Amino acid sequence: MASRNVLTASDVTIEYPAHSVSPSHVAVKGFTLTIEPGEIVGLVGSSGSGKSTLAQVASGQAALKTGSEVQPRIIGGSLQVLGYEMRTIRRNKLTEFTLGVGYVKQDAGTTLTPNMTVAEIVAEPIFLRDRKHDRRDAGLKAATLVDSLLLPVGTMLKQPHELSSGQRQRVAVARSLALDPVLLIADEPTAGVDVSVRGQVIDAIAGFQRARGGAALLVSHDLESLRRAVDRIAVIHEGVVVGLGDIDEVLDDPRHPYVAELARETSDSEW
Ligand SMILES: Nc1ncnc2c1ncn2[C@@H]1O[C@H](COP(=O)(O)OP(=O)(O)OP(=O)(O)O)[C@@H](O)[C@H]1O
């Protein structure tokens, strides 16, 4: 019977194949996680722990890589996203797949198209899906998203170079939500965003997804900004899940030294 989960990772192992002088490298080892419809899950871990690799593979972006780019590949276990097995997904299915999965890549704010306005950038996915889509409706959608990510309405007519890095990052997030994704995978969505509004931006993303029954996997090394918004966290360390569940339960009963370290950092920052 087909799973009702939007994401089911069972013992997934992901490798970067050998390239030029670099040997192959296993970045994610035996990763297991499920995300149900409407669930907001945080993926937390230190630098190099495998978060971006997972995000790229689960969002279909790794499979979209071409030419000389090194594509991480699943070499063990199973990763099902919206019913597609990512280990074997065919290239001709990726367009259909990515209509249901929003993706914010790491540093997404730095790669916005320079000569487009924010309104055009945010609404573009709507016209890529259906070039005859009603312009007024798409404009309204873009304005609603820009507003919900706490950007001033005047931002709509600006171009990326007129914005701060944190504002650009929020534009990238707004764009990723334009197609009402069933699952949003966001890799450090608040990178560069002012500390004072990071929590609110995460709350806005979670609120937008929850309101429509959408799910999210929010990747971050900043546990504090995720705390209010997520239903559960998965803690990853050197490619392995070392903590999974309700955020307080995971931190109150650390089963791994890295989780204990995270719990200590979190309690220190509360003073
Ligand atoms: N193109 C690549 N080729 C080989 N190894 C890679 C490649 N990209 C990443 N890695 C390795 O895979 C592992 C996981 O990297 P990844 O970027 O997924 O970690 P991360 O948790 O997202 O880190 P960060 O928080 O710094 O972004 C690291 O050991 C990294 O060096």
TrEMBL record:
GO molecular function list: ATP binding; ATP hydrolysis activity
Q: Name one Pfam family in it.
A: ABC_tran
Keywords linked to the UniProt accession: ATP-binding, Nucleotide-binding, Transport
One GO process term, biological-process aspect: transmembrane transport
What is the superkingdom listed in this entry's lineage? Bacteria
Q: PROSITE patterns per the record?
A: ABC_TRANSPORTER_1, ABC_TRANSPORTER_2
Gene3D superfamilies per UniProt: P-loop containing nucleotide triphosphate hydrolases
Please state which protein family the record places this protein in. Belongs to the ABC transporter superfamily.
What this protein is called in its record is Uncharacterized protein
